[in-house]
Amino acid sequence: MHRVSWRNPRLRRRGAALGALLLAAAPAIAGGEPPPALEPPAFLSWAPTPPMGWNSWDCFATTVTEAQAKAEADAMAARLKAHGWQYVVVDIQWYEPGANGFAYRAGAPLELDAFGRLLPAPNRFPSARGGAGFRPLADYVHGLGLKFGIHLMRGIPREAVARNLPVAGTPFRARDIANPADTCPWNPDMFGVDMTKPGAQAYYDSVFALIASWGVDFVKVDDLSRPYWAHRAEIEAIRRAIDRAGRPIVLSLSPGETPLDAAAHVAAHANLWRISDDFWDSWPALREQFGRLARWNPHRRPGAWPDADMLPLGTLALGERTTNFTPEEQTTLLTLWSIARSPLMLGADLTRLDDATLALVTNDEVLAVNQRSAGNRPCLNRDDWVAWTADAPGTPDRYLAVFNLRDRIPLRPETAAFRSGVVSRQTPGHAVPIAADISGAARLFLAADDAGDGNGWDHAVWIEPTLVRADGSTLKLTGLPWRRATAGWGRVAVGRAPGGRAITVEGRTFADGIGAHAPSLIEYELPPGIVRFRAEGAIDDGALTQPGGATVRFLVHAVTPGPESAAPDRTLAIRLDDIGLAGPVRVRDLWSHQDLGLSSGELTLAVPWHGARLLRLAPVAVP
Fold it and tell me: Exposed, middle or buried, 534 (CB in 10 Å: 0-12/13-18/19+)?
């Protein structure tokens, strides 16, 4: 059992969150008064509402510079600050002078101080020279009326361990506290810190003292939430270090999925924590977040927020593309994050916001649901309909969010023309043959899912995908344009694996193929006379360099759209008494800013495919 010293008043405040529930339920001491309720941890007051801001990862990956961060801050101050957006967060590898994309360079030299603490790379952040660190950039952001944040990896830099640098203020050195066997599976920069060793807590204290001296307001610490319990000691050490730093620094834990059995512990140590792995702009990934947010809903409270991850909107991926989400899916994204009160962190390049995206993220009526609603809860989940409701504090009004999760053309695994088993690193050849009868179909859908393990690095590739006509002649699928293609990360690409490299399976390179990180979906219009589809479904060699993930299932769907798919939406009727309202209500659409009049007894809503409606229902007194 983890022991907490009650002699330290800061630890006493943190321990209150863990003990308050037990104390509240305990009987009064015989012959005396009930024990006084303990105050919640002070850090919960540092994020009383879900944090709103911008993070550099989705659009700049590891490459963001001081000039770019300032430009993003300028854009936020000019166009978003008035709507509540306030954090500007520089994400991973700001300390790596040669960082150049979404990948990490093993063994790359890092910028460190004499005590093994990471410093901003001066070639990318010139104002950091001379020991200034991030202070000048933080001052610039603060001067705009905004707050400044950074990303940090768990642990101590491997380079600090190789050089055996001293731990500030102690007789210990990096090798005394590092655990070289404890490494991040996807980033090569750090070793874990062994919290049983003298000097370990002092190292984290020194790191956050330095960060506090820079004027940082928000820190996203990565490689913590998965696996959560293996990192418990470091999570607690980071909490102590922040509380000792003398500055209110909001703490975000990443990546996910944080396990539900850690709900009480994480809420006692962090302001927000990821509930999924990296979230990108694919419909399957968005749909999965509905279940996660519903499961985490009972564990949300002011100052402690389950985090569904960044909003991949606008211009992304080093400026190479814009979001894959349709306008309807973008509305669903913002509606779900708002009604579930997830933190809102934009991934877009704010300097290139188009009018539609700007309107989406500056809708004050919608943002008020995220920032000021209460009693948020799911109230319907059936037949591809989901609904949530929430209270508007200080009023009898109720918010209602309704989501149409049905695909315009339904694709069900049980009706697929082909469905593979799990393809993994244990599969012979890391591939399976695919053959499907698609006679009479007008559309072809190629799907790949993550086989249910929730991990990344699921590099699905379709090798030599071929259409076969009734006469036996063939047509390369890679020569046809797709109607739509989405991937769980990055882009679907012909002739390239996920991540942009050549498609390689067991050392063999294939020019004729399609790469798509699962979960992915690719839709084609079929030419007349096609009767069969064949290919190999494989895992690209690039995924096998990682210790986890690389599990994929392949599905082929061959369909002819029915008449329902031609309709622009579906209609749902909701009884008002099912959501706790009696009598007539005045209905306002928060996305369109339109008053829709009175409704009594039942509310009928038309919702676009993959779309959402967000309403405010105000009871009307009946004479």
Answer: middle
- Per residue in 357-396, pLDDT (tens digit) is 999 999 999 999 999 999 999 999 999 999 999 999 999 9
Average pLDDT estimate for 280-304: 95
Residue 34 has pLDDT above 70, yes or no: no
Question: Are 319 and 361 within 8 A, CB to CB?
Answer: no
Residue 459 neighbours by CB under 8 Å, 6+ apart: 497, 498, 499, 515, 517, 539, 540, 542, 543, 550, 552
Contacts 24+ apart (CB under 8 A), 471-479: 475/527, 475/530, 476/512, 477/444, 477/514, 477/524, 477/533, 477/535, 478/512, 478/513, 478/514
Long-range contacts of 265-269 (CB under 8 A, 24+ apart): 265/18, 265/232, 265/235, 266/225, 266/228, 266/235, 266/304, 267/17, 267/299, 267/301, 267/304, 268/14, 268/15, 268/17, 268/18, 268/41, 269/14, 269/235, 269/236, 269/238, 269/239
Give yes or no for residue 232 having a pLDDT over 90.
yes
Range of weakest confidence among 94-108, 471-485, 552-566: 552-566
DSSP 619: E
The CA distance from 287 to 292, in Å, is: 10
**For residue 161, what are its two tokens?**
């361990």
Pure H helices in 62-170: 66-79, 135-143, 158-163
H or E element, residue 191: strand 190-193
| Cis amide prior to 227 (ω within 30 degrees) | yes
- Alpha-carbon span 544 to 163, nearest angstrom: 31
The answer to whether 495 and 477 have CB atoms below 8 angstroms apart is no
Nearest to 350 by CA among 612, 104, 141, 124: 141
Q: What is the pLDDT of residue 31?
A: 37
Contact 519, 449 (CB under 8 A): yes
The pLDDT of residue 572: 95
Q: Which residues pair with 315 in a beta bridge?
A: 322
Task: Give how far the C-alpha of residue 366 lies from the chain's centroid of Cα atoms, to the nearest Å.
Answer: 20
Alpha-carbon separation of residue 21 from 67, 296, 376 (angstroms) = 47, 18, 21
- What is the C-alpha to C-alpha distance for residues 63 and 333, in angstroms, rounded to an integer? 27
All domains of the chain in start order, with CATH: 9-39 (no CATH), 43-372 (3.20.20.70), 376-408+564-623 (2.60.40.1180), 413-560 (2.60.120)
Report helix, strand or coil for 69. helix
Q: Encoding tokens for residue 497? A: 């694996």
Amino acid at 150: I
pLDDT, tens only, 192-226:
999 999 999 999 999 999 999 999 999 999 999 99
- Dist CA 573 CA 509 (whole Å): 54
Among the listed residues 380, 374, 383, the one whose alpha carbon sits nearest the alpha carbon of residue 402? 380
Contacts of 515 (CB under 8 A, 6+ apart): 459, 460, 461, 492, 493, 496, 497, 498, 503, 540
Whether 32 shows a pLDDT value over 50: the answer reads no
**Tokens standing for 73?**
């801050």
Q: What is the pLDDT of residues 239-280, one digit of tens each?
A: 999 999 999 999 999 998 999 999 999 999 999 999 999 999
Between 40 and 244, whose confidence is greater? 244
Cα–Cα distance, 353 to 547 (Å, whole number): 37
Q: pLDDT at residue 12 above 60? A: no
Q: Are strands 344-346 and 52-55 parallel, antiparallel or unpaired?
A: parallel
